Amino acid sequence: MEKEELFNYQKLTEEQLQTYNEQGYLILKGVIKPQGLEQMRAECMKAWNKEKESFDPNKSWLQNSLLVNVHHQAPTVKQYYFEGPLVSVATQIIGENVKGATSQLTFKMKGNTKPFGWHQDNGYGELDPYNALTTLSALDDTDRGNGCLWLIPGSHKQGQIRVEQNAEQKQSQSEIIVEADDSKAIPMEMKAGDSLIFNCWMLHKSDGNYSTDRDRRILFLRYADADAIEVYNNRKPRLGKLVNGHTKFHEVEEFEADL
């Protein structure tokens, strides 16, 4: 099926770009069309059921809620990640040279009431330059009842927040939680097919899914400067498929996205 039948391609307006720079986020309506949603849900659930089980409160967040590199098993997600409308959005915000940096299905099943505290995405995977872009595309309607995201508008302006972790915390990959003022938070409620985009320094969290009959499935796709390096990994280049422009790193130029 042609991409145009699955996704709505759009260019950010000057007003949207100004809002993003000032507030640190945007919600883009109806980025994924109904046929695209149908295909993505089917592919994602096939991949999920192949590797995962039902929610278990004794398991970790990674075991319960994340399926990494979901595009390896979901062709429509791969098309969306590498050729979809978010690539154009990323080039407007990051610049002409862009690579895909992360692909995940975040699946907060009904009954998974575990919250995820305040953090910055660049706190977990610090990339330089500091213009990486997080996109969250809703495969289900998301609201306060089933664990939608909350963020603090403008909080990206404080830059990278340093959190001290001891060797044991680093080894266990424990959550990197920061202090934030809950009174300034607003819920990011979305309809299925919408996409939330925000700055790598944006403070955000999510509550548990207290719904008894609704899951909350989100595609987490991160884009970065094509020459972005991993600060936490001896400043090695972040590997990811080049989706626009060029890069100075042959490792990125030659990166095979399916590996």
From TrEMBL:
Q: Which SUPFAM superfamilies match?
A: Clavaminate synthase-like
Q: What InterPro entries does this protein map onto? A: Phytyl_CoA_dOase-like
- Gene Ontology molecular function, alphabetical: 2-oxoglutarate-dependent dioxygenase activity; iron ion binding
| UniProt keyword terms in alphabetical order | Dioxygenase, Oxidoreductase
Q: Which cofactor does it need?
A: Fe(2+)
> Do you know which Pfam families this protein is assigned to?
PhyH
Key word Magnesium present: no
Please state what the protein is called: Phytanoyl-CoA dioxygenase family protein
Q: Which organism is it from?
A: Mucilaginibacter ginkgonis
